[in-house]
Amino acid sequence: MTPGDENLSQALSGRQDPFRSLETLAKSFAATAERHDREASLPVANLKALHRAGFLALTAPQTFGGAGRGLEDAVRVVGALGRAEPATGLITAMQYISLASLAESRCSPTLKRETLGAASDQGALLNALRVEPDLGTPWRGGLPATILRRTEDGWRLSGRKIYSTGAGALTWGVVWARTDEEPPRVGNVLVPLAATGVRIHETWDHLGLRASGSHDVIFDDVRVPEDHAADLRSPEEWAAAPDAIGAVWVSVLLAALYDGVARAAQAWTIGFLRTRAPSNLGAPLASLPLPRHAVGENEAQLAIHRRLLLSVGRDWDRDRSLNATEAGQIKVAVTEGAVAVVERALRLTGNHGLSRANPLERHHRDVLCGRIHSPQGDMVFMNAGGMALAEND
């Protein structure tokens, strides 16, 4: 245990401010963010530091050694990490979603203790592995091609998942699969990624979030104990009663992540405008009306994001007065706002902003990923529009 860990451990169990050390951690992560981006290297050291400080188990229940914190605190952490090094923030966001969902799942107390306890004690990482080459994202419906076949002692799992964030660092995969029964059932299956038959195919070579290690994970006849597939239901049952925690938390925490990226872009742009003094002007660009106006627009956008994200986090923690449809709308609004902030910064800084010598071009590449992350805008608006029109019939 490093100096200060005892204090932070107490803080994360509710006795002190848990975010006292977050700023220090974030600064150290920001210092290596450019290198991880260029190398497309997984920020393993960052994840270990978060574990040592107690942050990886922030949303695990206290009964399993976690901090028992809710969505509002998760928003604060993911936002800070998004500003510092967004791949670390994305992996952490997926961890928080998985821990919160697993705690309320139909898994046995023994399995919860094994997984949630390992997150608290050992820094074990979890993520939902859902997207497939043919299906795409299950947010849009359809049955997975990943198959669970019944055996005498449980199940055997075969399939391929793509865009598996943090794949090389994950301890557990929460795998979306269907059974080989007629009719099939679908559900989440807990799979230790060190199991025989699991392998990672390093396919991730993306424009943005290059350090997230979102490679393919292949399952080749992997043994799955009976209790690791504890929540198999018909597709109709899942459609009628989806994972509310997962749906809401994904949208809100992704919004917090990309808001963090936009804040990093705004901070660099302000520094640039304060120090860049063209010879024909004889004063910093910050003295001109146009940059002041544009920076002010960004400040207003970011202030709205902050108030919105923290308030919805509090609403959820208080009485869960937030549904998946509303959360999706918030995700789209904030991510589109974040893209607008970064693009406005690029217009202000010109070639300087697009140079790889400066971080703004990296922030631009990263923030664009917000449009691709589910739930995507077209689906959110179609769902909202359909509901509104149905209500007015």
From TrEMBL:
Q: Per the record, a Pfam family? A: Acyl-CoA_dh_2
GO MF terms, alphabetically ordered:
oxidoreductase activity
EC number(s) given by UniProt: 1.-.-.-
List each copy of the Acyl-CoA oxidase/dehydrogenase middle domain by range. Answer: 132-222
Describe the location of the Acyl-CoA dehydrogenase/oxidase N-terminal domain by residue ranges: 25-115
User: Out of the domains of life, which is the source?
Assistant: Bacteria
Query: Which keywords does the record carry?
Result: Flavoprotein, Oxidoreductase
Record-annotated Acyl-CoA dehydrogenase C-terminal domain positions: 254-374
Protein name in the entry: Acyl-CoA dehydrogenase family protein
State the organism named in the record.
Methylopila henanensis
